[in-house]
C-alpha cells in the first residue's frame, strides 16, 4: 500500500498538526476510542501514580482550606471578640478601660498567667485563666456532662469556684467538688472543661487549663509587681462600627501604648502560619510523588506505544499521517490521564470528611467536611501538566520512527529523536508546571528551593543511574555466564536502570532526610541537652524572696549550682526609629511580634562571646543613656550594629537604648539567655521578678518541688526533664507524620519499579525461555535476576543515604543552626528498603517468567 503523492508518510507535519481541523480530531478520537475498548491493561501503574500524586495534593489543599475557612468563620469565637487588646504585667488604666467601654458594645476582660496548683500533697503547673462574668463574649465553653457554665465560678460558702481540664484532676487525684490550693486561696473544682472556644493553640503547653473568676485572682496573691500576667480586653464592636475604624480611633488616642492588638482577621496567627507551612510542605511532598510517578507514567506510555508498533505501521500504510498517529495516542493518553485525575480528585474530596472528626477533638473550631473547588482545580492542573511533561517525549519520538522500523520485530523507541523545532512543545507544559508550583505556594522562597532541590536531585540520580550502567559494562567480561547476564541487563538497550534509580531514589532520599533530621533532634533532646541542663527553672520569684529561696534550696542535700537573673517583659516597638509594624517580615519576625523577655546585668552572662562592639563598664549606671546587648542572629536579621537604637515598651513606657554590642548565644545550653540584655540605671527601676535555675540529681527533684511549693506558693517550678520529654513527644509525633507523608513518594517509586518490571516482562519471559532451552536451571536464572535487582536496589539505597544525609546536614547546620551527627541506623533503613523493594519486584517478575512454557513463545518469535 502507498500513500498519496501529496502526503509522504516519511514527511512529518509541523507540531501545529496537534491543532488541526476538528474533523481530523474526530477521526483520531474514533480510532483512539476503539483501541481503548481493549481495556486498560498496561495502564494500571499509570493510573495509580497519577491518582496518588493528584489525590495527595487535592487532599492536602482541601483539608487546609477547611481549617483556614473555619479559622476565618469562627474568628470571633477563637479570638473571644472582634478585637483583642493585650497588655503585659499591668492592667489597662481606668481611663483606658473607660475608653474601651465607650467605644464598644461589650468589653470582656481576661487575665492569663502560669501558676502552680496544689492538692493531695501534689503540685501541678497550670495555665491559669481568670475571666469576668461576661465570658465568653462569643462561642460557648463546654463542660463535662453538659453542666451549665453561668455562675459556676462565683464565690459560694466562702469558696471561689473553678473549672479545669481533666489532666489537672488526674494529676492532683481530685474530683469535681474537691478543693485545690492556688496561691493564698482555695478553689473548689465545679466542672471539667471539654471545649474552650478561645483556647490558644500551641505545640507546647506547660500545664492544663484552670479557669477562675477575675476577682478570685486578686485573692490568690499571685499578682504582685513583676509577675508575668497578660491582660486581655475583648471588644464586641457596636453595630455599624468596623475593625479598621476602631483601630484608627485607638491609634489616634493611644498611639504610644505598647499594646498587642489582634482582630478576627488574624485570630490565631500562629495556627494559621503553621497550617500554611504544613500545607506547603505536604503539597510539595504530593508534587514529589507526582513527579516520581511521572516516571512511571512515561514508562507506561513508552511501553504502550512500543506495543502498538504494528498498529501504527498498519495505520501509516493506509495513509495515516504522522500527525494523525500523534493525535490518536495523545487522545488515548489524555483520556486515561483524566480517569486517573478524577480518581485522585475523588480521594482528595473525601479527605476533609475523614479528617474533620479527628480535628474536632484537637481544635476549638468546627472544621467543615466540604471539598474546596480551588484546591481541586489546582490538583487537576498539576495532574494534567505532569502528564504532558512526561508523555509528550514518547509520543513525539514515536511519530518520528520510520514505518519500516516499526515493522521490525523488537524495534522500540530508542532510535527516535525529538526534533529541535518540537522543543517548545515540550517546554510549554514544563514552564507552566514550574509557574504553578510557585504561584500556588504560600512561600515563594521555599517553592523555588524545592524546584532547585528537585532539579539537583533528578540530575544526581540520573547521573547515578548512568554510573551504574557504565560500571556494569566494565565488569561484564571475565565472569560466569549468569553474573554476566545480570550485569548486562543493567546496561542493555531499553534498560530501566536510570528510571528505577531516579524514582525509587527520590523517595528514599526524602525518607533519609526526614529521618536524619528527626533522629538528630531526638539525639539533641534525649542525650546532649540533659548533660548540661538544670533540673528546674523557677519563675516569678519576688526580689524580697530570693535570699530565703536560695537558703531553702541550699539546705537540701546534693544541690548543685543555683543561678538567678532578673526578668521583665517588653515589646519591641521600633528599630532605629522605624516603627516595628513597618519593618518587612523575615525569619526572625518573632522578635517584633508580641512581648519578649528581657533582663539587665552589669557583667556579660557566662559564656558570652562578643562579636561586635564592647560590653559596658561594671559601674555603668547612666539612666539618661541606656545601653543594650543583642544576640548576633537578631542583629544580622535586621541589619543592626553597635551604635544603632532599639525601642522597647515596658509597662506602657517607651525606652530607647543604644546597641552597645552583639553577642553569640548557645540556645541549646539551656542557660538563662536573653535576646536583649540592658545596662542598669533605668530599666532596673521598673518592677521585675527573678528567675532561677538549679542543678540536682533526679532523686532530689520531688523533695525540692514540694519544698518550694510549700514555702513559695507564688513561684512556678518547671521541671526541665518533663519539658524535654514533652518536646520529645511532640517531635516524635511530627516525625512520624512527616515520615508517613514521605512514604507517599516511596510508594510512587515502588509503583514505578513495578511498572518497569511489568514493562520488561515480555523480554524477561523470552530470555528465561531461551536460557531454559539452553540448559539453565531455575536456580541459575533466579541468581541472575536477583543479582541484577540486588545491585540496582543496593546502589539506589546507598546513593539515597548519601544524598539524604547531605540534605539533612544542610537543614540542621545551615538552616536550623543545630549540630549534625551521622546516625548509622537511620541511614541503613532506606538502604534495606531499596534492596527489599527491588528484590521483591524482581522476584515477582522472574517467577512469572520461569512459569512460562517454552514452546509457544519460541514458536511465536
Automatic annotation (TrEMBL):
PANTHER family: INNER MEMBRANE PROTEIN, MEMBRANE COMPONENT OF PREDICTED ABC SUPERFAMILY METABOLITE UPTAKE TRANSPORTER
Cellular localisation: Cell membrane
Keyword hit for Cell membrane: yes
Membrane topology: Multi-pass membrane protein
One GO cellular component term noted in the UniProt record for this chain: plasma membrane
Xref: InterPro entries: ABC3_permease_C, Membrane_comp_ABC_pdt
Domain ABC3 transporter permease C-terminal span(s) in chain numbering: 285-402, 742-853
Transmembrane segments: 43-63, 278-298, 337-360, 372-396, 423-441, 447-469, 498-517, 730-753, 791-815, 827-850
Keywords assigned: Cell membrane, Membrane, Transmembrane, Transmembrane helix
Domain of life per record: Bacteria
Name under which the protein is recorded: ABC3 transporter permease C-terminal domain-containing protein
Keyword field contains Membrane: yes
Chief site of localization: membrane
Amino acid at each position: 500500500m502507498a500513500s498519496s503523492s501529496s502526503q509522504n508518510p516519511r514527511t512529518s507535519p509541523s507540531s501545529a498538526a496537534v491543532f488541526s481541523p476538528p474533523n481530523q480530531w474526530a477521526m483520531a478520537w474514533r480510532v483512539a476510542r476503539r483501541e481503548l475498548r481493549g481495556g486498560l491493561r498496561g495502564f494500571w501503574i499509570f493510573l495509580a501514580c497519577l491518582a496518588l500524586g493528584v489525590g495527595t495534593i487535592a487532599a492536602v489543599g482541601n483539608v487546609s482550606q477547611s481549617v483556614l475557612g473555619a479559622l476565618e468563620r469562627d474568628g470571633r469565637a477563637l479570638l473571644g471578640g472582634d478585637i483583642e487588646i493585650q497588655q503585659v504585667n499591668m492592667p489597662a488604666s481606668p481611663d483606658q478601660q473607660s475608653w474601651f467601654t465607650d467605644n464598644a458594645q461589650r468589653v470582656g476582660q481576661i487575665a492569663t498567667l502560669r501558676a502552680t496548683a496544689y492538692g493531695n500533697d501534689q503540685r501541678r503547673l497550670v495555665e491559669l485563666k481568670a475571666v469576668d462574668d461576661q465570658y465568653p463574649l462569643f462561642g460557648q465553653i463546654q463542660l463535662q456532662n453538659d453542666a451549665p457554665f453561668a455562675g459556676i465560678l462565683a464565690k459560694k460558702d466562702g469558696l471561689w469556684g473553678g473549672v479545669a481540664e481533666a489532666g489537672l484532676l488526674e494529676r492532683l487525684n481530685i474530683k469535681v467538688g474537691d478543693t485545690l490550693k492556688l496561691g493564698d486561696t482555695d478553689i473548689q473544682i465545679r466542672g471539667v472543661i471539654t471545649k474552650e472556644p478561645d483556647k490558644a493553640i500551641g505545640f507546647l503547653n506547660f500545664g492544663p487549663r484552670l479557669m477562675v473568676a477575675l476577682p478570685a485572682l486578686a485573692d490568690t496573691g499571685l499578682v504582685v509587681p513583676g509577675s508575668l500576667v497578660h491582660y486581655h480586653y475583648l471588644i464586641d464592636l457596636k453595630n455599624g462600627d468596623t475593625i479598621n475604624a476602631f483601630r484608627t480611633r485607638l491609634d489616634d488616642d493611644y498611639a504610644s501604648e505598647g499594646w498587642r492588638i489582634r482582630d478576627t482577621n488574624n485570630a490565631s496567627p500562629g495556627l494559621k502560619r503553621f497550617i500554611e507551612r504544613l500545607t506547603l510542605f505536604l503539597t510539595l511532598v504530593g508534587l514529589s510523588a507526582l513527579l516520581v510517578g511521572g516516571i512511571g507514567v512515561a514508562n507506561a506510555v513508552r511501553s504502550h506505544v512500543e506495543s502498538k508498533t504494528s498498529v501504527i505501521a498498519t495505520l501509516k500504510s493506509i495513509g495515516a499521517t504522522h500527525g494523525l498517529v500523534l493525535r490518536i495516542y495523545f487522545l488515548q493518553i489524555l483520556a486515561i490521564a483524566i480517569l486517573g485525575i478524577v480518581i485522585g480528585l475523588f480521594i482528595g474530596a473525601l479527605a476533609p470528611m475523614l479528617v474533620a472528626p479527628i480535628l474536632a477533638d484537637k481544635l476549638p473550631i468546627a472544621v467543615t467536611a466540604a471539598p474546596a473547588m480551588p484546591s481541586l482545580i489546582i490538583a487537576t492542573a498539576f495532574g494534567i501538566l505532569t502528564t504532558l511533561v512526561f508523555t509528550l517525549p514518547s509520543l513525539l519520538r514515536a511519530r518520528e520512527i520510520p514505518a519500516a522500523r516499526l515493522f521490525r520485530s523488537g524495534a522500540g523507541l530508542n532510535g527516535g529523536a525529538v526534533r529541535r523545532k518540537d522543543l517548545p512543545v515540550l517546554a510549554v507544559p514544563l514552564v507552566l508546571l514550574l509557574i504553578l508550583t510557585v504561584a500556588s505556594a504560600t512561600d515563594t522562597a521555599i517553592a523555588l528551593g524545592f524546584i532547585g532541590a528537585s532539579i539537583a536531585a533528578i540530575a544526581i540520580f540520573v547521573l547515578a543511574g548512568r554510573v551504574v550502567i557504565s560500571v556494569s559494562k566494565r565488569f561484564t567480561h571475565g565472569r560466569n555466564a549468569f553474573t554476566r547476564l545480570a550485569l548486562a541487563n543493567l546496561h542493555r538497550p531499553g534498560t530501566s536502570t536510570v528510571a528505577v534509580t531516579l524514582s525509587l531514589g527520590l523517595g528514599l532520599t526524602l525518607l533519609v532526610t526526614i529521618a536524619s533530621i528527626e533522629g538528630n533532634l531526638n539525639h539533641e533532646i534525649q542525650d546532649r541537652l540533659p548533660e548540661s541542663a538544670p533540673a528546674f527553672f523557677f519563675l516569678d520569684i519576688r526580689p524580697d524572696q530570693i535570699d530565703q529561696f536560695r537558703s531553702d534550696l541550699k539546705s537540701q542535700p546534693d544541690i548543685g549550682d543555683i543561678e538567678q537573673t532578673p526578668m521583665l517583659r517588653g515589646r519591641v516597638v521600633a528599630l532605629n526609629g522605624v516603627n516595628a509594624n513597618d519593618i518587612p517580615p523575615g525569619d526572625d519576625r518573632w522578635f517584633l511580634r508580641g512581648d519578649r523577655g528581657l533582663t539587665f546585668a552589669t557583667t556579660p552572662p557566662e559564656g558570652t562571646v562578643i562579636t561586635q562592639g564592647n560590653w559596658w563598664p561594671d559601674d555603668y549606671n547612666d539612666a539618661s543613656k541606656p545601653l543594650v546587648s543583642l544576640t548576633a542572629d537578631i542583629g544580622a536579621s535586621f541589619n543592626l550594629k553597635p551604635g544603632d537604637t532599639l525601642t522597647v515598651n515596658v509597662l506602657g513606657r517607651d525606652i530607647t537604648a543604644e546597641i552597645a554590642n552583639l553577642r553569640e548565644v548557645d540556645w541549646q545550653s539551656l542557660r538563662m539567655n536573653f535576646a536583649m540584655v540592658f545596662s542598669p540605671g533605668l530599666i532596673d527601676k521598673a518592677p521585675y521578678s527573678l528567675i532561677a535555675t538549679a542543678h540536682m540529681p533526679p532523686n532530689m527533684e520531688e523533695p525540692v518541688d514540694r519544698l518550694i511549693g510549700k514555702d513559695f506558693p507564688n513561684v512556678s517550678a518547671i521541671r526541665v526533664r518533663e519539658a524535654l520529654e514533652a518536646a520529645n513527644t511532640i517531635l516524635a509525633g511530627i516525625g512520624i507524620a512527616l515520615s508517613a507523608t514521605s512514604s507517599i513518594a516511596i510508594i510512587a517509586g515502588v509503583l514505578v519499579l513495578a511498572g518497569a518490571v511489568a514493562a520488561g516482562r515480555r523480554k524477561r519471559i523470552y530470555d528465561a525461555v531461551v536460557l531454559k532451552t539452553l540448559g539453565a536451571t531455575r536456580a541459575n536464572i533466579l541468581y541472575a535476576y536477583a543479582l541484577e535487582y540486588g545491585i540496582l536496589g543496593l546502589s539506589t539505597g546507598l546513593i539515597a543515604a548519601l544524598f539524604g544525609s547531605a540534605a539533612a546536614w544542610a537543614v540542621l547546620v545551615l538552616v536550623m543552626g543545630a549540630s549534625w551527627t551521622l546516625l548509622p541506623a537511620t541511614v541503613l533503613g532506606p538502604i534495606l528498603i531499596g534492596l527489599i523493594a527491588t528484590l521483591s519486584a524482581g522476584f515477582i517478575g522472574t517467577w512469572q517468567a520461569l512459569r512460562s512454557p517454552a514452546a509457544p513463545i519460541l514458536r511465536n518469535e
